[in-house]
Amino acid sequence: MNSQPGPTSDQASIEPPAKRRKVVEKSSGSQSSDPATNTLPNARADRWLTSHYGGTSVITLTFQDTDRKYFLAREILVKNFEYFEGALRTNGDQPVFREGLTRCFNFQDISTHTFSFILRWSSFEYMLVSRSRPKVDGLLEALMAADYLGFKVMKQFTNFISARLAVELLLNRRKLTSAHLDLVARHNTSPNRWTNVVWEIFVKAGVRPFVQDFFADLDESSIRRWKEDEVPGVGPAPGHGDIEQWKDIVRHCRQLREENDKYALQVGKAVVQMLKEERLRGVHNTGTGTEGGLVYVDPLSKVDKVSCYKGHLDKKVSLRFAI
Fold first, then answer.
1. Of 258, 227, 206, 255, which Cα lies nearest the Cα of 323?
2. pLDDT exceeding 90 applies to what percent of the chain?
3. Helix, strand or coil for residue 13?
4. Closest CA to 115 of 42, 64, 167
5. Cβ(149)–Cβ(81) under 8 Å?
6. Which residue of 14, 107, 262, 267 could cross-link 206, Cys pair, CB 3.0 to 4.6 Å?
7. Which residue(s) pair with 284 in the sheet?
8. Strand segments (E) across 252-313
9. pTM (predicted TM-score)
10. Which among 9, 19, 7 is positioned nearest to 100, based on CA atoms?
11. How is 112-158 classified by DSSP, letter by letter?
């Protein structure tokens, strides 16, 4: 193998395209683009990659959660990420940055799972949500990492993640925490504007618990009567199969509003908007007869691509209560 010159002192390391913070703050340092090692590229790996995938060279990646090295074709990285496109560019035949010379990247605040999740999505954009369900933390980490690396289809990826967030919160809104609200608020300067989309999902998640806040104050006798169906069909349906669970969810969302004034204000505006929407048909048994109820579509269920979960999620919000 022909020898290549090592990194020179005047050869700079490219800065990442965006700055970010982790969902859970840790003591680890900020992302570094210094080479993982100073070893020269592996010629044998290059030949194998060329023969199997048509790639021109191997790029070595290491991540925060392991010392294991991962090898990917240069073309895959450059095709999908602005960061790698810049870091690996050349001036003639000479790499402009150290990473292009060593072909090694060490990411101190991106996990292998997060990076592989993004890369898989870039290859299989329509992979089913039900196959794997990362938690809210994991979905936000993926968005931040994609933004950080300059994912070239960030808009489509953001829409995909927002649908997954909507489904997760429809199933259990207690998954949303004040830390998530604060995290998105801190990143609202991102040029990709993914934070605006995610914040809107969080606000929509707060609408139903807000208009059904009375569930939080139900006494034990009311809950017992509800469970025993002494007065069947009375009042609006809770947003969970277990009324006690829904009571806890409503209390959780009340606390979120109390801890974040901006969030509370935005949820209130979203409630007004929902009430302006077309009312659905609904009736409630009052014990002395039936009368029309105020039933609306849950704004969270109107997120793009959530409709494919028909039959698995309760998507209606009823307001009347007569227990």
1. 227
2. 38
3. coil
4. 64
5. yes
6. 267
7. 291
8. 283-285, 290-292, 295-297
9. 0.78
10. 7
11. HHHHHHHHHHHH-TT--GGG----HHHHHHHHHHHHHTTBTTHHHHH
